[in-house]
Amino acid sequence: MADNKGHDQDLDLTSISEAYDDWERDRERRREAAIRERSHFEGLQIDPDIDFYPEVADREPGDRNIVRWGFDIHPQVTFSAAGFLLLFIAATLIFPDQAAGVFSAILSFINEKVGWLYIISFNVFIGAALYFALGRYGKIRLGGPAALPEFSTPAWYAMLISAGLGIGLMFWGVAEPIFHLTAPPPLFDVEPLSTEAARASLATSYLHWGIHGWALYGLVALALGFFAYNRGLPLTFRSVFYPILGPRIYGTWGNAIDILTVVATLFGLATSLGFGASQAAAGLNQVFGIPDNLLTQVLLIAGITGLATISVVAGLDAGVKRLSALNVWLAAAFLVFVLLVGPTLLVLSLYVESIGVYIQILPEFSFWNAALLETQWQQWWTIFYWGWWISWSPFVGMFIARISKGRSVREMIIGVIVLPCLLCFLWFAVFGGAAMNLQMTGELDVATAVNENVATALFVMLEAFPWTFFVSIVGILLLVSFFVTSSDSGSLVVDHLTSGGKLDSPKPQRVFWALMEGLVAIVLLVGGGLSALQTAAVATGLPFLFVLLIMLWSLKKAFDEELDLLESHYDEAIFQAQHSGLIERLGRGGEE
After folding, report:
1. Half-sphere exposure of residue 73, counting CA atoms within 13 Å on the CB side?
2. pTM of the model
């Protein structure tokens, strides 16, 4: 007892407290320095400082590229992807009527034959995200135990929200709740325009914009970031499959994976750009009387693609980061305005109540496939959305991975899911709730406008608010800003993939892919309008779905390997890396 008492008296708790305070300040300084002093980058390049796999240690990103005429391209990926896209563009323009029929047939086939696969796969994604985040893998950090984030948390959220949302929320924020209010999903069996239909409407919108899609984004970002930062492989989709394919990722299989990624990304982006153009045209018609026709939509895509090209040339730091911040502030102001001048208390009550409904029906709704009903509801809603999320996942996932060094698996998954979901729900509660209130009280017939032209939904609703002209212009500007951000971010991703993960690729190459995105969007509008846009998202998502499912197996193998190597000393390694200043100070004892 005496020895223990003497030992307790030897502990200098004041010194320990001071050392801890110094370490806290030092850690904060190191975090700020990591953000302030990170190397400037223009694209998605990562310069790995490790060679984890010795059998490919001599390989460099883009080491077998063709460099000529201002381009630096991976030949197999670039020529195959560009060739397919050009063939698609030519066939659609030459045979527009036949193309529209093909689009419709493809959509019907997917809904009838493989719609169940989309449904079950997205539940698998949620399960995998929770498994990785909440289990023993959650402590793994992108870049290693000592890695620090290169972006502040607010900047990180601003960029991932702008890249992952944008045009979709603007287009569907009013339209989707109104659709479900007037034609509720068959699962609920409620009367249209009833109070129960309003609750079901928001819960259904939450399903399509909630946990399922963001879990997928988080998983893709996690896989890409881990293999780039922790394994020293290029930031391309082929790298994710190294535990399965080994060095063959540099061969035919790897090329096929990257080709699928490029095509899925371009069609997913083209879908969003087409929606954005049709809504912007509707807004210009509503505000300035400019004809809302195909020519206006095509000119809008051309003009905004030009702005996106300028941003692409400027790079990630100068272009995308600033536009992302602008998007967030402008969208926040737009949201607050509608919340304050609309039925504020009703909207807030709906927000809370509908989240409860969403949580309540989530288990059943997540697996519902309308198996015993003769309906195309799933085809036009849930199946479309899952295909759209899939086609956007390589683009958003790679972008999030690039800005997420230093974040743990748990932080990545929880961060990518929780706040974006809550913001999506708030957006639908504010805009959809306000629109449904106008419809149900008879103050404004939003439903008729939505059924006639879904792109007009937002601007028709704004007619019931003060300063309609000014607020509508803000809405158009926000659409354009999101349009540009999505296009230039997507162009950087596609350019990165088609250069074999090259650290820096020529600006003409970036311009080429930005223009290709706009061209595909124009062709889809010409070839079949919104139906063609939906078909493109769903159809390109199907083959890539198998890539994503195999990705989960590959990522688990890599995580197991990581913990097998580090498990015995992993907690100690993390503590040593993160508390080195504190350990050093305490180790000196009373020397200071």
Report:
1. 21
2. 0.86
